[in-house]
Amino acid sequence: MSQPSETARRAPAWLQPLLARLGTARIEDFTQLRTPEHGGRESAVLVLLGEGETGPDVLILQRAATLRNHAGQPAFPGGAADPEDADAAATALREANEEVGLDVSSVTLLTELPRLWIPVSDFVVTPVLAWWHAPHPVHAREPAEVAHVARLPVAELVDPENRMQVRHPSGWIGPAFSVRGMLVWGFTAGVLSGLLDMGGWSRPWFLDRVIDLPPTEAMPAPSAGTDDVDESAMR
Fold first, then answer.
1. Contacts 24+ apart (CB under 8 A), 167-173
2. What is the pTM (predicted TM-score) of this model?
3. Which of 200, 198, 199, 209 is nearest to 174 (CA)?
4. CA angle, corner 199, sides to 225 and 167, nearest 5?
5. What average pLDDT does the chain have?
6. Which one in 70, 154, 195, 233 has a CA-CA gap of 20 to 30 Å to 188?
7. Could you give the CA distance from residue 11 to residue 184 in angstroms, rounded to a whole number?
8. Could you write out the three-class secondary structure of the chain?
9. Would you say the C-alpha torsion 226, 165, 200, 180 has a positive or negative sign?
10. Are 204 and 174 in contact (CB under 8 A)?
11. In b/e form, how buried is each residue of 146-156, taking b as 16+ CB within 10 angstroms?
12. pLDDT tens, 44-99?
């Protein structure tokens, strides 16, 4: 499902520019990290775009602080592939159902993004883009894994006041969003930033707004984004 299907072409008008642009998407649109040709644990995440009272939004969860990998970080629903999963989409949907109770029949699969590497956990992740055509209440089904679930409006994600870059103690710098009490950074922010740009939703924001990652957010090490910053640039 790497190319938008006929079903995808029936998605809402606000999604069409993004779908058209994704036909030429590259790894570099989302991260500076090259995906290795071999190795890495196959996994998938569900990038679920819906429409709420304030317009388009994206489903994000916050992982429990006690997890071994990516503890406390906001993320897309998803995880490692199981042997019985038919493909990346099956992995993403299964994980979303297990984590937040997503009814898979409420989702229209659209396309897959390039496979991306997360070095700290050695996951090779396929982001699966989907349209939430029949949104319904979701919640953290396993508090030991998921602390919080939210639908973050695109309008708030692209608000320049909510965009910044974060500096990890290692010196890595990458995109971030501060929305509704969540600091979204790392892999998830890299994917979101790329999608917002390609969908034509981004607004100019100051790349020289760089904050140090709070100590409680600083582990694990960063996994996506840029590794330097042009402090005179706007995006």
1. 167/210, 167/211, 167/212, 167/213, 168/213, 168/218, 168/221, 168/222, 169/212, 169/213, 169/218, 170/221, 170/222, 172/221, 172/222, 172/225, 172/227, 173/210, 173/225, 173/226, 173/227, 173/228, 173/229
2. 0.86
3. 209
4. 20
5. 85
6. 233
7. 26
8. CCCCCHHHHCCCHHHHHHHHHHCCCCHHHCCCCCCCCCCCEEEEEEEEEEEECCEEEEEEEEECCCCCCCCCCEECCEEECCCCCCCHHHHHHHHHHHHHCCCHHHEEEEEECCCEEECCCCEEEEEEEEEECCCCCCCCCCCCCEEEEEEEEHHHHCCHHHEEEEECCCCCEEEEEEECCEEECHHHHHHHHHHHHHCCCCCCCECCCEEECCHHHCCCCCCCCCCCCCCCCEC
9. positive
10. no
11. bbbbbbbbbeb
12. 999 999 998 889 999 999 987 555 544 568 999 999 999 999 999 999 999 999 99
- Structure confidence at residue 142 as a pLDDT band (50, 70, 90): confident
In whole angstroms, give the CA distance from residue 208 to residue 230. Answer: 7
What does residue 63 show for φ and ψ, rounded to 5 degrees? Answer: -75, 150
Structure tokens at 44: 């998938």
Higher-confidence residue: 14 or 70? 14
Q: For residue 13, give the amino acid letter.
A: A
* Tokens read off for 14: 């606000």
